[in-house]
Amino acid sequence: MRKRQKFVISSVVITLGILLAQAAPLEWRYVLIFLLCGISYLLSAWSLSEGLGGVEWLTVLLPQAVFTGAVGWFFILLPEVWLARIVLATLFAIGHYALLLSGNIFSVAAIRTIALLRAAQTVSLVMTLLSGFLLFDTIVSFRFPIFGSSILVLFASLLLSITALWTVEVGETLNIKIVLYSLVIALLMSMLSISISFWPATISTTSLFLTSMLYCFLGLSSHHFSQRLFKNTVWEYVIVGLVVLSTVLVTSLI
User: What is the pLDDT at residue 111?
Assistant: First the structure.
């Protein structure tokens, strides 16, 4: 069976799983989505097993599992409108398939140069930010105690950062620099989630703010890793961060 056929089968199975999980009693949905994350990992491993080795079993397969959880738990928050859920499920299937394609490129790029690497990095970053937004929105929606939410934001940011930064320096090992930068980003995101919790911002505004900050941190780190972190680049991300922060502060007071 060809890889692309495996990608399609994996994406369809997980998509159907997410839709079926929504038909279960509410108290079971969270557990079922968690199980689907594991199934997504296993199906991704089955689809990409031929080219995987070393740390790729984590960095290449983890994004699909995280994306499954992000969309699955966000599904639970949606109103009982099946048309909207079918549309979102279709978009999820496309996103899951895109992640498998990108993962295939990364697994090859770990051992030799490949022309499609830049395109795969772009897709990976977009899907990372999308997963981040959905996860942050879900975490904020549950209105956990401040430090409980901050721990969840830290954990989610760590998973997202490790895989995103690894794609900049694709290799068969996970060097200490990637781990340290990911930990710093996760800690910063956790502190930001605590800070904004004291501001009367809506759930969507808070999620968008955290996602924008994650984009800035990952962008600066990625440019540093690729030795393209110039003064103008730093200011571009600083301006983006300031604009987002100002927008959040202003809109929350209106």
Answer: 64
